[in-house]
Amino acid sequence: MKSYHLTTAGEAFALQLGEYPQPQPGPGQVRVRVRACSLNYRDLLVRQGRYGKRTEGLVPLSDGAGEVEAVGDGVQGVRPGDRVAGCFFQGWPSGPFTAAVMDTALGGARDGMLAEAVILEAEGVIPLPAHLSWAEAACLPCAGLTAWNALVTRGGLQPGTTVLLQGTGGVSIFALQFAVALGARVILLSSSDAKLERGRILGAAQTLNYHTHPDWEQEVWKLTEKRGVDHIVEVGGNLEKSLRCLAAGGHIAQVGVLGGGSGATNLFPLAMKNARLDGIYVGSRADFAAMNQLLNTHQLHPVIDRIFSFTQATEAYDHLASGSHFGKVVIEIP
Length: 334
Description:
This protein has 334 residues and is α/β, with parallel strands linked by helices. The chain folds into two domains: 2-143 and 283-332, Quinone Oxidoreductase, Chain A, domain 1 (Alpha-Beta Complex); 155-279, Rossmann fold (3-Layer(aba) Sandwich). The protein has helices spanning 41-47, 134-137, 140-153, 170-181, 193-201, 216-223, 239-244, 268-272, 285-298, 313-322; strands at residues 2-9, 12-19, 29-38, 63-71, 83-86, 117-121, 125-127, 162-166, 185-190, 206-209, 229-234, 246-254, 276-279, 304-309, 328-332. Helix 3 (140-153) packs across helix 4. The two termini are 12 Å apart.
């Protein structure tokens, strides 16, 4: 059984592919033959040693899909041959988030999915929508569920509301697809006119190039007739700008700081607008199941930018780091 592990290489960590014994599931566990994995920005941070407590020897990547090969004692409801995805948090079946949940994150607190076979908790896998390929299903556990939690579970998105999305990475493109499917109007930001055109094809009502319009929050304010947007999926570290174009009673889902932030932010507008700011850290298995229902109902397909082979894992990381992608970067395992 081949598996990647992170090993020390200078100031960062290298991906090392090696041969390891076939893992065996214990009580309450399953062994999954992984068919595809996808990358997230978090995975770049893990490789740089900037995320979590453990990096040396870690099997990276939180996101993967495959088929169940074997089950341990006491497992019910999961059988060999089932097509499943691994849940990002192996210990968050439902209910509120707790500190203990953080210790069950794949590709961070515990070994992840970049291997031919992995051991997961039986309650930490979920059936796949039948219309999705392995590569598409591998995109769901982190980016897809983060977007779902941001807009639906925590955001309470309603038809006719306005959503502002920043960039065209995995979370933002999933959020675009979900918002359009649920009847919301989307304003999409990017530094690439070509990517904005692709966003319009996916249903974005209006687009803005934030290089052409560095004061994009003012343009968003104008586009909404000085009302502001109801929902913002904040991924760029632009919280202060987001607050300026948020509608009264609006909602910001803080899911990342790809831009690194810009120091202290004045949160007084949040109170003045009686608005809501939610930190989003993926979601539970129950949230995953609800998201899959929407995917099934609307027959949605995740947007994949590029697929790499198992032996091209380093190239896949480099491609994600380049920022040239639109949607998800995937590694297939033959």
